[in-house]
Write a sequence for this structure.
C-alpha cells in the first residue's frame, strides 16, 4: 500500500468562509484538521486544532453566517474547535474525491505556514495518481513525497501537541537523541526561542506519550 503526501493551496486563503476568517485573524493560527466529513444533508463537520484562545475562536465562529453550530475547548497547549458548516463547491468537490476513487485520507491534515493543507492519501499507486488528477479546478497542488505507508509512526506523531511536535523536531535536528548526545535543553531552547525548562518539560511529556503508546 502506497501513500502520497501533497500540499493543497485553496483559493482565497481558505476552503470555506469560516476557514478564511480563521486564517485571516492575527490572534489565531490553524495548525491541523483532525477530521472533515460531509453529512447526508450536504453540510459538513470538521475538527480544528488551533493556536489561540477559546474566546477569540468563539468570537470568529459566532460571526460567520455559514457556521451552523460550533463547540470550542482548550486541550493542553491547543484549542480544538468542532464546526458544523454549510459547504461550498470547493469543499463538496474535495470531499467527493476519496469516496469516488476508493482512497483513504489519513488525518490529521496539517496547515502549512503559508496556509496550505498538507495531507496524505493512502491506496494503490495507480488509483492515487488518477485521484490527484480530479482535484477541483482553482485549487493548487504541490506533491511532496510518496512511499510505502507506515501508519503507526505518523499517527503517534499526530498525538503530540503543536509545541511538542516543534520541540521534538528541533531536538532530533540538534542531535539530542544521538549517542553520544550532541545537544542540551539549552541548545534546543535557543533554536525555538524558549527556556531550557520549557523544552525539558515538553521532552518529558513527549517521551511519556511515546513510551506509553509502544509498550504492549
Amino acid at each position: 500500500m502506497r501513500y502520497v503526501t501533497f500540499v493543497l493551496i485553496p483559493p482565497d486563503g481558505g476552503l470555506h468562509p469560516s476557514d478564511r476568517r480563521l486564517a485571516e485573524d492575527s490572534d489565531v493560527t490553524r495548525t491541523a484538521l483532525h477530521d472533515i466529513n460531509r453529512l447526508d444533508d450536504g453540510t459538513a463537520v470538521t475538527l480544528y486544532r488551533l493556536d489561540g484562545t477559546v474566546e477569540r475562536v468563539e468570537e470568529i465562529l459566532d460571526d460567520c453566517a455559514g457556521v451552523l453550530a460550533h463547540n470550542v475547548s482548550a486541550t493542553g497547549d491547543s484549542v480544538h474547535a468542532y464546526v458544523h458548516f454549510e459547504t461550498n463547491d470547493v469543499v463538496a468537490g474535495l470531499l467527493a474525491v476519496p469516496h469516488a476513487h476508493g482512497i483513504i485520507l489519513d488525518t490529521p491534515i496539517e496547515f502549512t505556514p503559508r496556509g496550505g493543507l498538507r495531507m496524505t492519501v493512502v491506496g494503490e499507486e495507480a488509483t492515487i495518481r488518477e485521484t490527484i488528477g480530479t482535484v477541483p479546478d482553482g485549487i493548487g497542488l504541490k506533491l511532496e513525497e510518496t512511499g510505502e505507508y507506515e501508519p503507526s509512526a505518523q499517527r503517534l506523531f499526530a498525538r503530540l501537541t503543536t509545541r511538542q511536535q516543534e520541540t521534538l523536531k528541533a531536538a532530533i535536528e540538534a542531535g539530542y537523541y544521538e549517542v553520544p548526545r550532541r545537544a542540551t535543553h539549552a541548545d534546543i531552547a535557543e533554536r525555538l526561542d524558549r527556556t531550557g525548562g520549557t523544552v525539558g518539560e515538553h521532552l518529558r511529556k513527549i517521551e511519556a506519550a511515546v513510551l506509553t503508546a509502544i509498550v504492549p
